[in-house]
Each structure stands twice: as C-alpha cells, then as structure tokens.
Amino acid sequence: MVxxxxxGHRSSYSAERLRWACPCAECRGEAGVPGRLxxxxxxxxxxxxxxxxxxxxxxALQVAFESGHATGLYTFVLLRALCDCAECQARRxxx
Length: 95
Ligand SMILES: [Zn+2]
Ligand SMILES: [Zn+2]
Prior knowledge:
Layout: E1 2-4, E2 10-12, H1 15-20, H2 25-28, E3 29-30, E4 33-34, H3 36-39, E5 50-56, E6 60-65, E7 73-75, H4 76-82, H5 86-94
Antiparallel strand pairs: 1-2, 3-4, 5-6, 6-7
This protein binds zinc ion (2 copies).
C-alpha cells in the first residue's frame, strides 16, 4: 500500500507491517490486558494479506485483511509514524 501525502512525501507499507501495527483493542490490548499481537510471534498468511482498504472520515484508513480482521483504524498520524523510508528513519534517529 502506498500513500502519497499532501506534502509530497510518499510512504509504502507492506501488508505484514500494517498487520503487526494494527491499533485495534483486540490486537493491542486494553485496560492493562495485553493484546493478541503481544502474545503471538507468528500470524497465518491470510492475516498478512490486505483484502480491502477504505477511508474513514478524513482521518483514518480501515484495513481489512483476508482473515476477516478489519477492526483496525489506522489514523493518518499513525501511518505517518509507521513510515520507514530512509528520510523518516533519519528524522526519527535525530530526535
Ligand atoms: Zn487488530
Ligand atoms: Zn517517510
């Protein structure tokens, strides 16, 4: 998946990277309870393939995986923070 930002920046994400970054309560955990992604080291291939991406309002993308998991709302703030191009890595390292 590739996002072309308004400022001209481009970010690309593998489905695997997006899956492991899923921000939903089930994956991340809530109220001090670890989520699923903290407990597993391996995800099935169908968990790691994107089936559909849809825009939620003006602020996020909902990513549906082939496994049927589609509860993660990836805000643009999160997506920008996930960008791991050389430029963003260098900016983060400088902080
Ligand atoms: Zn999730
Ligand atoms: Zn970047």
